[in-house]
Specification:
322 residues; alpha/beta; seven-stranded parallel beta sheet; six-stranded parallel beta sheet; 9 helices; 13 strands; globular
Length: 322
């Protein structure tokens, strides 16, 4: 049996996005007869969320090593800088795998050994043309096989707030507060991140704000929302594929930068970060979407075909058995 080791972390520092896409890739590989092992630092909530999707995934501590056919590294070395890489981790896992594949979260191709495969999906200013590099919208972490035609039959809501990992719920609470000031009757769904402990103050409210945690799929929530507010990452691309009207709210500088690049391509709106003037900027974004929302929906849906996870899983499988 071919072995694929996934080197990743999932905690409040890096969020759950890396684990979400690796879990989807692993589920496809497990169905094809591969043994999948996750090596890293996982919060309790993150580990439970992964196992809820696939009990076949195994876990080891990040300090351990397993000889494997492929090591798929989806590592956020510096939670503030997606361009950063760890040469020690790369050398360590390259030494025990026949093929090292790196999913890179930055905007530039990282400096890795020549025989390392690199996968990137973030928006870039310039195109990539290099052997062993697979980059672009075709590798955005979307799995259209999870999307069912009956999703849009669910009760519609005005806004889905789905922000990434953070130490606490303060940003979620601020966004909900702004939305309720804009329209007190606005129907709001909030997706919690499994890496953030506890619950936000509005979690048990009985009014127009509903809080969800540990959902098996985000696609039903994306499909029923008129507007999606996300911090960048997997969920943004999933929302764009479904034709959602997307507002990117960066909680970190690189998220703001990436959101601005997507907005520059006409796929979404970027509200920037949570700083001075945030309330007004978010209000302005809603005004623009009321007027031009459909053109953003069409542009995003056209750019992302939803087969990124499938392509990555196929590439890993090919390298594992070659």
């Amino acid at each position: 049996m071919s072995i694929v080791v996934f080197r990743l972390d999932a905690n409040f520092s890096v969020g759950f996005g890396h684990a979400a896409r690796c879990t989807k890739i692993a589920m496809r590989l497990v169905k094809s007869g591969f043994r999948c092992v996750f090596a890293g630092d996982f919060s309790r909530g993150a580990k439970e969320a992964i196992l809820n999707n696939s009990k076949e995934i195994e876990f080891i501590e990040k300090v351990n090593q397993v000889d494997c056919d492929v090591c798929l590294m989806d590592l956020m070395v510096d939670s503030e800088d997606p361009e950063a890489i760890d040469p020690f981790e790369i050398a360590k896992w390259k030494s025990c795998s026949r093929q090292l594949i790196v999913i890179h979260s930055g905007l530039s191709v990282p400096a890795v050994p020549d025989d390392t495969v690199v996968i990137g999906y973030q928006p870039r200013v310039h195109d990539v043309a290099k052997l062993g590099v697979y980059w672009g919208a075709n590798f955005a972490p979307i799995d259209r096989s999870e999307i069912h035609c009956d999703f849009r039959e669910a009760e519609r809501v005005d806004v889905l707030v789905a922000l990434g990992g953070a130490p606490d719920w303060s940003v979620h609470e601020r966004v909900v507060s702004v939305l309720r000031r804009l329209n007190s009757g606005m129907m709001i769904n909030v997706l919690g991140s499994p890496v953030i402990p506890g619950k936000p103050s509005f979690a048990d409210s009985q009014d127009n704000v509903k809080f969800y945690m540990g959902v098996p799929s985000v696609y039903p929530f994306l499909s029923q929302a008129d507007v999606v507010i996300a911090s960048f990452g997997n969920l943004c691309y999933e929302a764009l594929h479904l034709g959602a009207k997307l507002i990117v709210l960066g909680q970190k500088k690189f998220q703001v930068d990436c959101g601005n690049l997507l907005a520059g391509k006409g796929y979404c709106l970027s509200v920037g970060g949570v700083g001075e003037g945030f309330d007004q900027r978010l209000s302005d974004c809603f005004q623009v979407l009321r007027r031009d929302g459909e053109q953003f929906s069409e542009a995003g849906q056209k750019a992302f075909d939803g087969r990124g996870i499938e392509r990555i899983a196929n590439l890993v499988a090919e390298r594992a058995v070659s």
